[in-house]
TrEMBL record:
Top-level taxonomic group: Bacteria
PANTHER family for the chain: BLR0621 PROTEIN (PTHR38589:SF1)
Protein name as annotated: YkuD domain-containing protein
């Protein structure tokens, strides 16, 4: 998977699960210093309730495997110092919660994963260039202790760190999937 990281990327968030069906993952931040990639932080996290897929569809409860850019952020809380463009909207984020699947503070902070979304728009923009069946609205967001509909969760300390460190000038990307497919 490292071969698919764009040459211009200077920051990579790697999210991996032990196997294809696991909702448990590890989130690791790597930053390029010269020609060397340094692991600078890591956190426990969660991904789709039913694991990972290379053919994600709306409501399949699996996170897409791949390399995706990270360009936009937002949340229901004020900007904690994000370097990515940050949209705060206390009304848009809570209204998106599905009571049986979301938790009160899931969307306090989010970083949009550029999977089937337009770049340069708020994370809660529902335009889907590849159509609604391919899903979308996949974010890094606050952890609630278990699997998600397709997003990746990170503890609050991790979300704040990522928001403050990810720099659009360094073209950050996320590499995500189960260990087996990430090694391929």
């Amino acid at each position: 998977m490292w071969k698919r990281v764009p040459a211009g990327a200077g920051q990579v968030v790697v999210v991996y699960g032990e196997d294809r069906e696991s909702p448990d993952s590890v989130v690791v931040l790597y930053q390029k210093r010269g020609t060397i990639w340094e692991r600078t932080a890591s956190w426990p996290g969660h991904n789709g309730r039913l694991g990972w897929t290379t053919d994600h569809h709306m409501d399949d409860e699996q996170s897409p495997v791949g390399v995706f850019s990270l360009t936009d952020a937002g949340g229901s809380l004020e900007d904690p110092g994000s370097r990515l463009t940050y949209w705060q909207d206390g009304n848009a984020f809570p209204s998106m919660q599905i009571p049986e699947k979301a938790h009160d503070h899931d969307f306090d902070y989010v970083i949009a994963i550029d999977y089937n979304r337009l770049k340069g728009v708020p994370p809660f923009d529902w335009n889907r260039p590849e159509g609604p069946d391919k899903g979308g609205g996949i974010w890094l967001h606050m952890d609630h202790g278990d699997g998600t509909s397709a997003c990746v969760t990170v503890p609050v300390s991790g979300m704040k760190t990522l928001l403050r460190v990810l720099d659009p000038a360094r073209h950050p990307v996320v590499v995500m999937g189960d260990r087996e497919r990430l090694r391929a």
